[in-house]
């Protein structure tokens, strides 16, 4: 990989995972090109040829295409192990970083999607700004046809992700998360010190969109101006050189984020994995006093398997260090082996 033979990141302007990967490549100073293919998923061109059915897709310098941002982040660590790692050197911190990143990818995405496509003001703006990034310039009438098709598509997806009973819960998460970051910024630039971790990139990906979408952007600027700027800082952190803080127990913003993991993310993973094993396509469970009913997402099996595997692989001393905070934030139980067969998930690898 050189500047003349760089990674190629195929992504989209409204895609949180695409921006997460771009920020990560920038921070790690891995030469890359950012490419927004001139079409949307599955509508011809290089993305369809890559065959992943999701974005982002990363083309390695050797030519192969790979998807799934979390395994990609770990694969990039294996490929470029020495410089500017985003995995904290302390195994306990590295585990917390994975846990928070997984919550960002799986729960904050629902929060962002619900707000983006859940109000007329938001969806009218968001569809137009995203499509204008995806498509070539074109006359207004032709553009508006794309806009109404896209709004129809995204609204149908929203209907499958979350029902009416989840809306209040998802809305309440946003101030909770940006409040935790605002608090962090009183003493620390990133979650685990003065350099960003995998978790920071996970949060950044989703928040990059919250900072743009009309109603969340307004709330963001009012409630958490420093966290709003943090999003801009994360977008290109290639000039930041920092260090990991030795004592993660002096990071009082972590419990707020871990409570979301323990009270929302892990219960959703557990409910979906149980439903999958019972051959159900839908699940229903109680989350923070709200009934959560939705279609099962088979990817959740991988999330739970990879988190449990990472927990089990920790040195005993790190597990002992983490146990109190994980118990206090309701994370501990779901991480323990309990006879669930998660072997179908396989190892964490890009696909
Ligand atoms: N686990 C994947 C998730 C990627 C993902 O869900 N991407 C969305 C766009 S942000 C997507 O491609 N959705 C499929 C679609 O819109 O058809 C990752 O971390 O890369």
What is this entry, summarized?
With 351 residues, the protein is an alpha+beta fold.
What's the rounded overall pLDDT mean? 95
CATH class designation of the domain at 7-79: Alpha Beta
Strand order of the largest sheet: 2-1-3-4
User: CATH H level of the domain at 7-79: which superfamily?
Assistant: Glutaredoxin
Please mark out the parts with pLDDT under 50 across 5 or more consecutive residues, or reply none.
none
The name of the CATH architecture of the domain at 7-79 is: 3-Layer(aba) Sandwich
| Main sheet attributes: strand count, strand direction, barrel closure | 4 strands, mixed
The name CATH uses for the topology of the domain at 7-79 is Glutaredoxin
Characterize the overall form.
globular
Radius of gyration: 20 Å
How many strands appear in the DSSP assignment? 6
Query: Count of helical segments?
Result: 13
Terminal Cα separation, in Å?
A: 20 Å
């Amino acid at each position: 990989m050189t500047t003349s033979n760089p990674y190629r990141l195929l992504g989209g302007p409204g895609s949180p995972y695409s921006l997460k990967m771009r920020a990560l490549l920038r921070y790690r100073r891995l030469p890359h090109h950012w490419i927004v293919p001139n079409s949307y998923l599955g509508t011809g061109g290089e993305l369809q040829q890559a065959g992943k059915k999701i974005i982002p897709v990363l083309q390695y310098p050797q030519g192969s295409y790979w998807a799934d941002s979390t395994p990609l982040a770990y694969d990039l660590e294996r490929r470029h192990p020495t410089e500017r790692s985003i995995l904290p050197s302390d195994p306990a911190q590295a585990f917390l970083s994975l846990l928070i990143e997984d919550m960002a990818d799986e729960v904050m995405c629902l929060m962002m999607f619900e707000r983006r496509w859940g109000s007329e003001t938001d969806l009218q703006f968001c569809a137009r700004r995203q499509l204008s990034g995806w498509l070539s310039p074109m006359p207004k009438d032709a553009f508006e046809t794309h806009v109404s098709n896209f709004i129809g598509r995204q609204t149908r997806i929203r209907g499958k992700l979350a029902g009416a009973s989840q809306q209040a819960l998802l809305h309440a998460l946003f101030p909770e998360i940006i409040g935790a970051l605002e608090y962090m910024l009183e003493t620390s630039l990133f979650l685990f010190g003065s350099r960003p971790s995998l978790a920071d990139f996970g949060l950044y990906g989703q928040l990059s969109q919250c900072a743009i979408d009309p109603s969340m952007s307004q709330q963001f600027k009012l409630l958490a101006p420093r966290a709003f700027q943090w999003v801009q800082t994360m977008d290109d952190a290639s000039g930041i050189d920092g260090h990991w803080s030795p004592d993660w127990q002096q990071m009082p913003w972590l419990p707020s984020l871990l409570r979301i993991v323990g009270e929302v993310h892990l219960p959703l993973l557990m409910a979906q994995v149980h439903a999958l094993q019972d051959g159900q396509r839908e699940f229903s469970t109680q989350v923070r006093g709200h009934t959560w009913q939705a279609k099962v997402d088979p990817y959740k099996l991988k999330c739970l398997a990879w988190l449990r595997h990472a927990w089990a692989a920790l040195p005993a001393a790190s597990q002992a260090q983490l146990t109190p905070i994980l118990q206090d934030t309701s994370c501990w139980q779901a991480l323990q082996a309990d006879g669930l067969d998660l072997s179908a998930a396989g190892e964490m690898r890009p696909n």
